[in-house]
Design goal:
- This protein has 120 residues and is α+β, with helices and mostly antiparallel strands.
- The chain has a single domain, classed as Trna Endonuclease, Chain: A, domain 1, CATH 3.40.1350.10.
- It is 29% helix and 35% strand.
- The protein contains two helices and five strands.
- It has a five-stranded mixed β-sheet with strand order 1-2-3-4-5, sandwiched between helices.
- Strand 3, helix 2 and strand 4 form a beta-alpha-beta unit.
- It is globular and about 40 Å long.
- The protein starts with a helix and ends in an 11-residue tail after the last strand.
Length: 120
Amino acid sequence: MNRRQLGTDKEKLAAEYLEAQGMIILERNFRGRRGEIDLVGREGNYLVFVEVKYRSNTRMGAAMEAVDYRKQRQICRVADYYRYLHRLGSSTMIRYDVVAIQGEEIRWVRNAFPHMDAGR
C-alpha cells in the first residue's frame, strides 16, 4: 500500500471514529492554495477543523508531535479560506482538533491549538 492510500485509510478511520463520538463530518480533504485540511466537521456549535496524523510506531516520533507550529499556521490559513468561501463570519465558533493515530491507538485532542491570524 502506498503512503497516499495509507493516509486516506487513516483519515477514513478517523472520520468514522469522530462520527461515532457524535461529530458530523462536513468535508474530507478540503484543499486551498496554501494546503489541505483533512476533515471539517461540526460538533455542537463548533465548526471543527481536524488534522489527522498517523505513525505506525514511535521511530519517527509521536503522531501528535507532527502537528508543529508551521503545520498549525498552515491549517489556520486554509481554515480562513474555508470560512471565506462558505461566507462564515468571525462570529462562527471554530476549533482545531487533532486525531493522532499511533499504531492501533486513536487519540482525539479537542482544541489542540489556538487560531493564528494569517499575518503572524
